[in-house]
Amino acid sequence: MKIQAAVFDLDGTLLDTLGDLADAANWVLREMGFPVHPEEAYRRFVGNGAKLLCRRMLPPERQDDRTAAQALELFNCRYQKHLFDRTAPYPGIPALLETLAARGIGLGVVSNKPDPFVRPIVERYFPGRFGAVSGPLEGRLKPDPAGVLRALGELGASPKRALYVGDSGVDMETARRGGLRSCGVLWGFRDEQELRESGAEFLISSPEELLKLVHSLDAEGKAVR
Asked: How far apart are CA 162 and CA 100, in angstroms?
């Protein structure tokens, strides 16, 4: 089975965005007079879109719709101005993408981050590298596979001959629903247990291991986990 495409999650998979997300969120909390969180806490808050992030970060007694909407508006304004302060690609990611592209594998990004954030971030750190880039398709967040399937259409790839690569259970469920092979990365925001419990077919500890996985799938039609 020759792999035609690899579609990636963004935050926690290609880029370490945690610092900028946490900084923007804590700025909002201070503005609203609420306690802030340590940066590490945001590993559990992110992954399901900005709307849910803003609800999760609020005190439990203030997670009502009105307060969450106010927090989201402030967050979007603040984060838009600080997309690139501390964000950086994980080590080995640029080389991985270069090698995959050289092998003729189509590359895509589908994130639950809002589209107005996804596109400038991807273009800043990976200019011209991806053939399909998007946030949620018409508000349909992952694990709804609509965005991933659209990306595969743009890349001219079949789900059965594609990998979805991400760092969370949401990503693994997205792959399952879309009919893609799922690959969980262990350098991201979530842990190995979540990935395994969410049905990850493959787990990798470094970008180099993804190249080995692709080679194995191309050569044998399957890979040993």
From this structure: 13
9 catalytic, yes or no?
Answer: yes
168 class by beta-carbon count within 10 Å (0-12 exposed, 13-18 middle, 19+ buried): buried
Query: Structure pTM?
Result: 0.94
Q: What are phi and psi of 83, to 5 degrees?
A: -70, -25
3-state secondary structure 77-115: HHHHHCCCCCCEECCCHHHHHHHHHHCCCEEEEECCCCH
Contacts 24+ apart (CB under 8 A), 96-105: 96/207, 96/208, 96/210, 96/211, 97/126, 97/129, 98/129, 99/211, 100/6, 100/210, 100/211, 100/214, 101/129, 103/214, 105/3, 105/4, 105/5, 105/6, 105/214
> Residues 17-44: pLDDT tens digits?
999 999 999 999 999 999 999 999 999 9
Sequential DSSP letters for 5-61: EEEE-SBTTTEE-HHHHHHHHHHHHHHHT-----GGGHHHH-SS-HHHHHHHHS-GG
92 near 206, Cβ under 8 Å? yes
* Catalytic residue of the set 9, 11, 20, 144: 9
